[in-house]
């Protein structure tokens, strides 16, 4: 699958020849430096963007538009939540938008707010919640429509380290209990190692691609005092470092030459 933005002098080949299979129930991390095309790839999977060549197939059918079966999940909970609605109403709003039958709403709202430990805060407004709680609300809202796939775009990048670790626990627990397929975008090597069944590594663009897929057969929670995890971290870092340098050089070149 390939994706080009713009035309003429502004033409930019973001993705070129992406070829990836994701199993049902798998936790796949997409790892690559900033600007390599991770969000582009996720947006195409979600149906927000269209590929120029190739197709995303989901359960045997091509993805042509967003759907309730694939929920997108963003870094900025603020852009996903409605600030004038309470915690509970935010989940209800998602159910209404996605046309979930009304008679099930109360039960669904209870179940998912309990799952993310927000049931005691159901009458609060999003502004009264901490960053981690807002992300938990976003998770509850996404899960409530019972999608098969969660597409997560650097969801915890803005959280402090401890909250992030806690969110990893919450997400892994939900994933293990519900059997969802998760595609999780990150530029954080440690996060990818903590979470993934596999890590798909992406090269820097133009013409970004998946360069390597690493299968992690380590039990969770992954302990970084474990020599195998530490070794893997170093290996991935050694592979990504030249990519990051390349991406910085490209960005600097773009500034100096007024665009490349
Ligand atoms: P990542 O999520 O890995 O940081 P993106 O998918 O956001 O990367 O972007 C990949 C490349 O495509 C970047 O060089 C970015 O500037 C470019 N790009 C992304 N969206 C657009 C767009 N709508 N129009 C033009 N170029 C874009
Ligand atoms: Mg991105």
Description:
With 260 residues, the chain is of the alpha/beta class. It folds into 2 domains: 3-69 and 147-259, P-loop containing nucleotide triphosphate hydrolases (Rossmann fold, 3-Layer(aba) Sandwich), CATH 3.40.50.300; 82-141. The chain has 8 helices and 10 strands. The strands form 3 sheets. A 6-stranded mixed beta sheet has the order 6-7-8-3-9-10, sandwiched between helices. The chain has a two-stranded antiparallel ribbon with strand order 1-2. The protein has a two-stranded antiparallel sheet with strand order 4-5. Strand 7, helix 6 and strand 8 (181-186) form a beta-alpha-beta unit. Helix 3 (87-97) crosses helix 4, helix 3 runs parallel beside helix 5 (131-144) and helix 4 packs antiparallel against helix 5. It binds adenosine-5'-diphosphate (ADP) and magnesium ion. The site of magnesium ion has 3 residues, from helix 1.
Question: Features of this protein?
Answer:
single chain, 260 residues, alpha/beta, Rossmann fold, 2 domains, six-stranded mixed beta sheet, two-stranded antiparallel ribbon, globular, binds adenosine-5'-diphosphate, binds magnesium ion
Class by alpha and beta content = alpha/beta
Query: What percentage of the residues does DSSP assign to strands (E)?
Result: 15-25%
Distance between the termini: 23 Å
Main sheet strand line-up: 6-7-8-3-9-10
How big is the Rg?
A: 19 Å
Total of domains = 2
What's the total helix number?
8
CATH topology of the largest domain: Rossmann fold
**Helix-strand pattern, N to C?**
EEEHEEEHHHHEHEHEEH
Q: CATH homologous superfamily of the largest domain?
A: P-loop containing nucleotide triphosphate hydrolases
The coarse overall form would be: globular
Mean pLDDT: 91
Class of the largest domain in CATH?
A: Alpha Beta
Number of strands: 10
Largest sheet: 6 strands, mixed
Helix content, binned percent:
40-55%
Ligand kinds:
adenosine-5'-diphosphate, magnesium ion
Give the low-confidence spans: none
CATH architectural designation of the largest domain: 3-Layer(aba) Sandwich
